[in-house]
Design goal:
alpha/beta, Rossmann fold, 3 domains, 10-stranded mixed sheet, 6-stranded mixed sheet
C-alpha cells in the first residue's frame, strides 16, 4: 500500500542527503548525519593542522547565510494569471512574476537538469542601482509585504551605495544562492552567460568558480558596447562589458561554430582565376623544428622557377612529402602573384566550414547599447527602460549554445525588459527552431515620474510582459499574407503564459504554545484543514504539479469519463509516469470504482484526504501511488 501525505513545500536537500547516504551509509544514524563518523571516514582526505586551515577562496560577511539560503525550502507557490499572456493554451513559453530566489527554488524539482542555456544580466552594483535585499528567514512573506501585496507597502529592492561598509558583501549575498540554484537547473551539456562590468567581475568570477567549479570556466568575453567614447570620462571611456561563460560540464557542452559573415567571405579571392572559385591561403609551415620533425624538413621545387625552396629549421613544413606532391599536382599551392613567393596552401570558400567564435565581440557583430535603446523605443516609443541589451547580443549566445532542431529551454531570471524572450522568438523565426523560454522578473516599481509609469507600466515586470506581447504581435503581422515556407516539425510557438509568486496553499506547520486545550484545538484545526482558505483548484493544481516534479508546460487535460468529478490528467515528456488529480470535496462511488482502471502502477493520484473513504483509499493505494492532502 502506497499512501503519501503531501507536504507544504519541496526542498532539494533530502535528495542531496540521499545521495550522500548511498555513498557513505555508515555516516548516518537514525536518519541523521553523524558528523564525527563522516570525519573519520574522510580522515585521510581532510586537512589536519593545529591552526585553522587557510584555503584559497572568496570570503565575505554573510556567506554562510547565503549558502544556506539556497537550501532553504521554498514557502510559496506559483499561481496562473490567465489573460496576461498570448496563445496560452498552446504555448510552452513562460513568464514568471516574482522574487527570483524563491521562484528558482519552486522550479527546482520540475526543471533540475533540464535548462540548456541561462543568460542573466544582474544588477552591476554600481552604487546607484538596486540589489535584492533578501530576507532568508521569511522570503515569500517579505516579498509580499514589501511589494504591498500583504497590506504593508514597501519595496524589496534597496540601493547599495559604495559608502556602505558591506558594499561588495551585499551584492555577493544576493548573487551567490541564485548561482547555486542556477547550476542545479542546468543540463549537463548546458551553459550560463552572465553580463557584468568592472565593479564585480572579479568577485563574480570567484563566486562562479566556487558554485560551478573552476574547471567549468570557459571564457571571459569582452563586449564592445559603445559606438562613441564618453568624452566626459575622468580617466578612460568605459566602452566594454564582460560576459562570463561557464559550462555545466566542459566535456559535454558543445560550442556551435558560426557561419561566415560577409566580411569573412571577403577574405576569399581568386587572383589566379582558379575554376574552383574564390580561395584564401594559409601558411605551409608549422611550429615544429627540424630536430623535432626531421621528415618535414625537405625541399619543395617551385614549378615557376624550378628552384628548391627550404623551410626554416625552426619552422618546418606542415605536410609530408607525399601530401605535398598531391598538393602540387592539384594546384593547391600558391606561390604569390609573381610566382616567386613562399608556398601557401589554398583553402577554397566552397569547402570552408563555420568559423570558431572569438572572445572579443564588436558592436558591429552583436549590437551596442544605443542599438538596444533604439530597438526598445521601436516597441515603446515613449521609452521606459534605461538599460536594455541588444537582441543581437543574446542571439549570438543562443546561436553558440542551442540548436534549431531541438526544443532547448532558455532561462533568464533577471529578465528586465525581456530581451532574452525577444531573441528566442526572433531566432526561432529565422532558423525554424523550437527553443522555449522561461523569464523571471520581480515586479520592481518604475519611478513615479517616469515615462513607463505615465504609459501605464507600474513595474518592470509589466514592461517585460508587454514587450513579449508586442514582439509577438509584430511577428504575426509580418507573417500575415506570407506563405510559411519554413520546414518545422512543430508549429511556431508565438505565445507565453504568466504565473505569479504567491503564498503556498498549504498551511505552514507552526510550533504550538499555550494551554493543552488550545494545543489540541489547533492540532485538530490544522489536521482538518491543511489548506489556506480561500483556495482555487487551478492554483492548487499548479502547486501539486511542481511538488510532484511536473513542469509548468505539462499537458493538462480533464478526463471526460468521470462524469461526477473533475479529474485532471497531467503528463510530460520529462516524466515517465502521469499525475492525476481530483480536488473535489467528495469523490463519488462511481468515480472511485472507475479510477483504478484509468491509473497505471507508476501513476500518482492526488486528492483531498476527506474526499475518499478508507476503503477507497486502500483500493487506489494498491493500484497507484496515492497522495492525499
Amino acid at each position: 500500500m502506497s499512501l503519501t501525505k503531501l507536504r507544504p513545500s519541496f526542498t532539494f536537500t533530502p535528495e542531496r542527503l540521499e545521495q550522500l547516504k548511498q555513498a557513505v551509509p555508515e555516516a548516518f544514524a537514525d536518519g541523521k548525519v553523524n558528523w564525527e563518523a563522516l570525519r573519520e571516514i574522510l580522515a585521510e582526505h581532510l586537512e589536519e593542522e593545529e591552526e585553522p586551515a587557510e584555503r584559497f577562496g572568496l570570503f565575505w560577511p554573510g556567506k554562510r547565510l547565503a549558502r544556506r539560503a539556497a537550501a532553504t525550502p521554498p514557502q510559496g507557490t506559483l499561481l496562473p494569471a490567465p489573460g496576461e499572456g498570448v496563445n496560452e493554451e498552446a504555448t510552452r513559453n513562460l513568464f514568471i512574476e516574482g522574487e527570483n530566489l524563491e521562484v528558482l527554488k519552486l522550479l527546482l524539482k520540475s526543471y533540475a537538469g533540464r535548462v540548456k542555456m541561462i543568460y542573466i544580466d544582474p544588477p552591476y552594483n554600481t552604487g546607484n542601482d538596486f540589489v535584492y535585499a533578501d530576507d532568508y528567514a521569511e522570503p515569500v512573506e517579505s516579498y509580499l509585504r514589501r511589494t504591498g501585496q500583504a497590506g504593508e507597502k514597501g519595496e524589496l529592492l534597496t540601493t547599495n551605495p559604495k559608502t556602505s561598509g558591506r558594499y561588495h558583501s551585499n551584492w555577493l549575498n544576493m548573487i551567490y544562492p541564485r548561482l547555486v540554484l542556477a547550476r542545479q537547473l542546468l543540463r549537463e551539456d548546458g551553459v550560463i552567460f552572465i553580463s557584468i562590468d568592472n565593479n564585480e567581475v572579479h568577485n563574480l568570477r570567484q563566486a562562479m568558480d566556487e558554485t560551478f567549479g573552476s574547471e567549468s570556466f570557459v571564457d571571459c568575453i569582452i563586449w564592445q558596447k559603445k559606438v562613441s567614447p564618453s568624452n566626459d570620462a575622468t580617466w578612460f571611456s568605459s566602452d566594454h562589458d564582460y560576459l562570463l561563460v561557464y559550462a555545466a560540464s566542459k566535456e559535454l557542452w558543445k560550442l556551435n561554430r558560426l557561419p561566415m559573415n560577409e566580411r569573412q567571405k571577403g577574405y576569399y579571392q581568386n587572383p589566379d582565376s582558379d575554376p574552383r572559385g574564390p580561395w584564401n591561403s594559409a601558411t605551409y609551415t608549422c611550429n615544429k623544428t627540424k630536430k623535432q620533425r626531421p621528415n618535414l624538413y625537405y625541399a619543395i621545387v617551385n614549378p615557376f622557377t624550378n628552384e628548391e625552396v627550404w623551410p626554416s629549421e625552426t619552422a618546418v613544413w606542415a605536410y609530408s612529402k607525399g601530401v605535398c606532391s598531391q598538393h602540387l599536382a592539384a594546384n593547391m599551392i600558391y606561390w604569390g602573384r609573381d610566382g616567386r613567393g613562399k608556398p601557401r596552401l589554398k583553402k577554397f570558400l566552397s569547402h570552408a566550414g563555420n568559423v570558431v567564435p572569438r572572445s572579443v565581440w564588436s558592436y558591429s557583430e552583436v549590437g551596442h547599447t544605443q542599438e538596444a535603446t533604439q530597438e526598445f523605443m521601436g516597441l515603446f516609443p515613449s521609452g521606459g527602460f534605461e538599460t536594455p541589451k541588444p537582441t543581437r547580443l543574446v542571439k549570438r549566445m543562443l546561436e553558440l549554445s542551442s540548436s534549431a532542431d531541438t526544443s532547448d529551454l532558455i532561462l533568464d531570471f533577471f529578465a528586465g525588459s525581456c530581451t532574452t524572450a525577444h531573441a528566442v522568438l526572433a531566432l526561432n523565426r529565422e532558423d525554424g527552431g523550437n527553443r522555449r523560454f522561461i523569464m523571471v522578473q520581480l515586479p520592481e516599481p518604475t519611478p513615479a515620474d517616469s515615462a513607463a509609469r505615465q504609459a501605464g507600466f507600474p513595474t518592470i515586470a509589466e514592461i517585460g510582459k508587454e514587450r513579449i506581447r508586442r514582439v509577438i504581435a509584430r511577428m504575426q503581422a509580418e507573417q500575415n499574407g506570407k506563405l510559411d515556407l519554413a520546414t518545422r516539425e512543430q508549429p511556431e510557438d508565438l505565445g507565453f503564459r504568466v504565473y505569479k509568486l504567491a503564498r503556498s496553499h498549504f498551511r505552514p506547520w507552526q510550533p504550538y504554545q499555550g494551554e493543552s486545550t488550545a494545543v489540541v484545538q489547533q492540532l485538530f484545526n490544522q489536521a482538518e484543514s491543511p489548506l489556506v482558505e480561500p483556495w482555487q483548484p487551478a492554483g492548487l493544481l499548479v502547486e501539486i504539479m511542481l511538488q510532484e516534479g511536473f513542469p509548468l508546460d505539462s499537458d493538462v487535460a480533464q478526463r471526460g469519463e468521470f462524469a461526477h468529478n473533475a479529474v485532471e490528467r497531467v503528463s510530460s515528456e520529462f516524466c515517465e509516469h502521469r499525475l492525476f488529480a481530483c480536488l473535489d470535496a467528495r469523490i463519488v462511488s462511481e468515480t472511485a470504482e472507475a479510477l483504478p482502471g484509468a491509473l497505471g502502477a507508476q501513476d500518482v493520484f492526488v486528492c483531498l484526504d476527506q474526499a475518499l473513504t478508507d476503503e477507497g483509499k486502500m483500493r487506489l493505494a494498491d493500484r497507484c501511488n496515492l497522495h492525499v492532502i
